[in-house]
């Protein structure tokens, strides 16, 4: 799909990055910007900055930065075009006329596109298999489980043939790479037979989607009576699928979760599918795994309220006990529903219906603390003073994870009242737990180590990646003024473009960024679209992610014009131009200053008259070159000022 640049520009201009980012994190105003805890990592102090004026973001914890498109790409793990398509309806821009396959010449390509295409092809292959006679067994299985044809279609459910290489054979015919199929875990290679074979065979197939709606993997349930085969198998982790970061059906549920301000968290694929089928569409599944911190953070993008409904067996209860701690540590509000014995969400909603299910939730949901108290009581956790002491400590371990001090205080009071234990005693015990957690464990060092304990240091890479910290102050100041000038017109761009000979940049990033901006300016001029030239949007076309992040960090720093009066736009632009010229002058002359200092140091370290004479001659030449550079710059400035 090719989307013209002017459409991408229009989408970007119609969006406010603050509104979009607010869907994922809680922003708080900090001066002219907004701040939040980083959505990309775990941190206690906010380091994530969003600039509404410049329409960019910067995460100082991870170094990531960019515009509204790159933010959505990061959060949803999708490519550029998919981010544009995802944001277009929100911007009120229709892309219907471009919904056809064509070379995507207007935007950066997604390096993982071939992987996504392979998975999409595989999902269609599995889904279409149910229309064949061999797939009737699988289709009947879904229908017997109460799944309607339209639900089968909506979730893309499918069938993996009871055949050794049907998928691989079809993939070869369609030109699908065997290497990528193997990397994604869809086929495996046997050394004995010297050939590939299908990894999923005789299984009901559940496509697993990213939050953005792309197929990233599969789950497969066995349909035969094979006793030695696992009931479920899943795709292995790959460059686009990390099981710990995915919740099944989040792509279908996220809008409803936002609307209802609550997510229902269940265990399995069928639980989610049955709930969605009856209209309870804010349900997602952890897919049989223990809830992870990454999954909790994914939930946190859309809501703070989570209702756990796992199976009521021992394994389900144990998983909820662990999962509660994960949720509350991430600042989420967890409540729990325990279903009647022998029921799971799938069976309960099929047998009792939507209304009864919702009524049961309303009547029987409990707070996470009440749930934990009940579980401990059922396990004999309060039958003796010793057992009660251990149970209280276990509960306090959970409560100590609460980041909200006020909520912690309220739960401590509730625990004190329910167990008839003094509040001060409970608080004192909590303090011990918190102190233990803060205190780093120290292992005694042995008096001697084997030689193997001190391996040879790893060799350094031949060329270290560029680091924004080593860009000189002069070049950083120049770049900041250069980039900010584009918010006020093209005078500076035209000046730099026509006076390239006076610039001698030291750092690769400075050259790259200047060349990139000049190339984009020339492109816009040639296309007669200078009216759409917009720095946040131009970042879409900078392939170097590190340089893009560096630009974002420069722009979210305090503006060179932050304290200037803004009553006159023309005066504001002239002040910005003045700052650029000042930075440029210092940048041009800085190399002469550095060379002069180096020569003076050399002079102090030598007593050789001939060497001193040579250094004096060099200093004299430097002075003449510096005077000429000042003169050339002054002449150049006349053209820009006039």
Automatic annotation (TrEMBL):
GO terms for cellular component: cytoplasm; DNA-directed RNA polymerase complex; primosome complex. It catalyses: ssDNA + n NTP = ssDNA/pppN(pN)n-1 hybrid + (n-1) diphosphate. Its cofactor is Zn(2+). Transmembrane segments: none annotated. InterPro entries: DNA_primase_core_N_sf (IPR037068), DNA_primase_DnaB-bd (IPR019475), DNA_primase_DnaG (IPR006295), DNA_primase_Znf_CHC2 (IPR036977), DnaG_bac (IPR030846), DNAG_N (IPR013264), DnaG_primase (IPR050219), TOPRIM_DnaG_bac (IPR034151). Binds 1 zinc ion per monomer. Its EC number is 2.7.7.101. Keywords: DNA replication, DNA-binding, DNA-directed RNA polymerase, Magnesium, Metal-binding, Nucleotidyltransferase, Primosome, Transcription, Transferase, Zinc, Zinc-finger. GO terms for molecular function: DNA binding; DNA-directed RNA polymerase activity; zinc ion binding. Monomer. Interacts with DnaB. RNA polymerase that catalyzes the synthesis of short RNA molecules used as primers for DNA polymerase during DNA replication. Belongs to the DnaG primase family. This is DNA primase. It comes from Chloroherpeton thalassium (strain ATCC 35110 / GB-78).
């Amino acid at each position: 799909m090719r989307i013209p640049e002017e459409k991408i520009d229009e989408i970007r201009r119609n969006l406010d990055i603050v509104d979009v980012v607010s869907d994922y994190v809680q922003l708080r105003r900090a001066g002219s910007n907004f701040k939040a805890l980083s959505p990309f990592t775990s941190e206690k102090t906010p380091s994530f900055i969003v600039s509404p004026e410049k329409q960019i973001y910067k995460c100082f914890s991870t170094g990531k930065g960019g515009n509204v498109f790159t933010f959505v790409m990061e959060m949803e793990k999708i490519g550029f075009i998919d981010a544009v398509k995802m944001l277009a309806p929100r911007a009120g821009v229709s892309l219907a006329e471009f919904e056809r396959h064509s070379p995507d010449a207007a935007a950066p390509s997604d390096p993982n596109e071939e992987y996504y295409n392979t998975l999409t092809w595989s999902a269609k292959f599995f889904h279409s298999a149910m229309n064949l006679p061999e797939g009737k067994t699988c289709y009947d299985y879904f229908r017997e489980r109460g799944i309607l044809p339209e639900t089968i279609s909506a979730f893309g459910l499918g069938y993996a043939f009871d055949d050794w290489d049907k998928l691989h054979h079809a993939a070869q015919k369609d030109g699908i790479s065997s290497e990528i199929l193997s990397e994604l875990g869809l086929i495996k290679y046997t050394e004995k037979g010297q050939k590939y074979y299908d990894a999923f065979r005789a299984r009901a197939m559940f496509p697993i989607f990213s939050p953005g709606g792309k197929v990233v993997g599969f789950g497969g349930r066995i349909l035969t009576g094979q006793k030695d085969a696992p009931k479920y198998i899943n795709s292995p982790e790959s460059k686009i699928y990390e099981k710990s970061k995915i919740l099944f059906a989040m792509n279908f549920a996220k809008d409803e979760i936002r609307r209802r301000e609550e997510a229902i968290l269940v265990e399995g694929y069928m639980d989610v599918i049955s709930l969605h089928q009856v209209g309870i569409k804010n349900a997602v599944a952890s897919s049989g795994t223990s809830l992870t911190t990454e999954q909790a953070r994914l939930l946190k993008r859309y809501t703070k309220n989570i209702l756990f409904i796992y199976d009521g067996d021992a394994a389900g209860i144990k998983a909820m006990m662990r999962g509660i701690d994960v949720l509350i540590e991430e600042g989420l509000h967890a409540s729990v529903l325990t279903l009647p014995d022998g029921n799971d969400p799938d069976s309960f909603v099929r047998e009792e219906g939507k209304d009864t299910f919702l009524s049961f939730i309303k009547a029987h949901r409990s707070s996470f603390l009440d749930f934990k108290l009940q579980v401990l009581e059922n396990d004999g956790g309060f039958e003796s003073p010793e057992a009660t002491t251990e149970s209280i400590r276990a509960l306090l371990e959970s409560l100590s994870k609460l980041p909200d001090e006020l909520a912690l205080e309220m739960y401590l009071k509730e625990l004190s009242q329910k167990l008839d234990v003094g509040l001060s005693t409970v608080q004192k015990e909590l303090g011990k737990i918190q102190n233990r957690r803060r205190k780093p464990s120290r292992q005694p060092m042995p008096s001697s180590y084997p030689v193997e304990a001190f391996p040879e240091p790893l060799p350094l890479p031949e060329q270290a990646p560029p680091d924004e910290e080593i860009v000189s102050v002069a070049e950083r100041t120049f770049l900041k003024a250069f980039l900010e000038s584009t918010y006020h017109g093209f005078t500076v761009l035209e000046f730099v473009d026509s006076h390239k000979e006076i610039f001698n940049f030291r750092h690769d990033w400075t050259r790259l960024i200047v060349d990139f901006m000049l190339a984009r300016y020339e492109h816009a001029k040639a296309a007669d679209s200078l009216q759409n030239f917009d720095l946040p949007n131009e970042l879409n076309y900078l392939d170097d992610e590190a340089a893009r992040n560096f630009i974002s960090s420069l722009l979210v720093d305090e503006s060179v014009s932050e304290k200037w009066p803004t009553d006159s736009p023309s005066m504001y632009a002239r002040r910005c131009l003045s700052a650029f010229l000042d930075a440029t002058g210092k940048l041009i002359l800085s190399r002469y200053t550095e060379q002069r200092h180096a020569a003076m140091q050399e002079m102090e370290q030598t007593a050789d008259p001939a060497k001193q004479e040579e250094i004096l001659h060099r200093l004299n030449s430097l002075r003449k070159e510096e005077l000429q550079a000042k003169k050339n710059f002054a002449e150049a400035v006349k053209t820009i000022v006039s």
